[in-house]
From TrEMBL:
PANTHER family: MAJOR FACILITATOR SUPERFAMILY, MAJOR FACILITATOR SUPERFAMILY (MFS) PROFILE DOMAIN-CONTAINING PROTEIN-RELATED
Alphabetical list of SUPFAM superfamilies matching this protein: MFS general substrate transporter
PROSITE patterns: MFS (PS50850)
Residues covered by the Major facilitator superfamily (MFS) profile domain: 1-446
InterPro entries according to UniProt: MFS, MFS_dom, MFS_trans_sf
Name the UniProt record assigns to this protein: MFS general substrate transporter
Keywords, sorted A to Z: Membrane, Transmembrane, Transmembrane helix
Chain segments carrying region Disordered: 462-481
GO molecular function, one term: transmembrane transporter activity
Pfam families according to UniProt: MFS_1
Compartments, as annotated in UniProt: Membrane
Cellular component terms per the entry's GO annotation: plasma membrane
Amino acid sequence: IKFDKGDPRDPKNFSYARKWTITLICCAFGGITAAASSSYSISYESMMKDLNCTRLQATLGLSLYAIGFGIIPLISSSFSEECGRRPVYIMSSALFFLAQVMNALAPNIQTVVVSRALQGVFGSCGASMIGGTIADIWQPHERGLPMSLFAFTSLFSFGLGSAFGGLISASPHLGWRWVQWLHVMFTGTFVLCAIFVMSETRSSIVLARIAKDARKMTGDPRYRSSAEIDKPSMSSLIKTSCTRPLYLLFTEPIVQSFSLWCGFVWGIVYCLFESVTTEFQSVYNFSVGATGFVLFVGAIIGFVANMYQETLYRKHFLIKGQEARLYIPCVAAAVLPVSMFIYAWTVSPNIPWIAPLIGLTAFMSSTSVIYQVSFLYLADCYGPYASSAQAGQSLARNVMALMFPLFTQQMFAGMTYKWGLTLWALLSVVMAPTPWVLFFYGSKIRTRSKVSCKILEAEQQEWDGGATAVSSPTEEKSMQA
């Protein structure tokens, strides 16, 4: 059983209205999970007073949430191979909803930490499929805008969650529990959308259902989809899902460099909400959440930059190939350390507040660009292995998000905020050449990679009318967010 050309049941042939509905619903879940992270960290003070806990205990809830997004998808993403995208979205969001209710009703910090760990586990199951869902329904040349929207929604919601979470938790009549109840409302709405509006987007699952209906109607057991032939076991799926991302992470220079660069930036983002923005608010006597507003303004600027990058990609792809994705990221790599230096050296009562806000906005704009390119560039470079490359990058990124908040308090206490941020800015200078090196030498690096050579051979076979696939049906399983 295969799709005919133009078959409306093929997810890639869905109408644009249907495609955008699915894309927006998925991006909404990415936004919900991102906002749940920043709004939690910005409401520490209210939680510490209410539950009589230490800041380190509260920080564990943030770190465990992040590590869930790095590790769990390596295991859980295989289930979309067996069950499809839609059931996993429903299950993931429903359990995420229950974990948020548990958090809102928590009588002590131990319950909060457990609920946050569960939120990371359940939220990551659905959020990790968003990139894969976009790839299911959009052709490669159409994915720029949907992927930009995905990156924008995540970072915009990260700032928005901080702004509204700070305002709610600072209210003497509301507090941190109402932050959680607000997330419960949004997640509950998403669960209903997933049930009543979301469509299945994984073509192998759709074909399997069509084949099942054909067997039922005709009584002929020979009707099969390609995914049902030599179907791997669940244990084989999980083994591949867990091992291939690690193999690419430890052996591929492109994956390694992007993982280190993106992980470092993502760790700083978490630290901004864990401690640095609190210092900014105390120096200028700003309301809690003001910096969150600035950060999602930066996300808007980053979104516009990503749209311009998409124009450059289409213009220069025939000449530069995959490296045409790196024009704006090269600029972002230079802006990032400059923005951090500006912020580190201008947070002072003697300097107008607009100066550090410019630094924060530039930082978030650069982060938005880097976040998106980490998906698109790896997808372009690794083709059928892209999901595993992105899974490895996501693992490294979220591990750093786990580690950074745990030591920042001690670092800033010993070095002060100015010199601690200066150290980070210097490290970002060291990493700034990453996209520049790949821009000029990325194609040469790929020629020395066994994985890339295998991909090139398969692409040549496709052009020659030969084999049509590199990887087994176990591959498209772990597109990360």
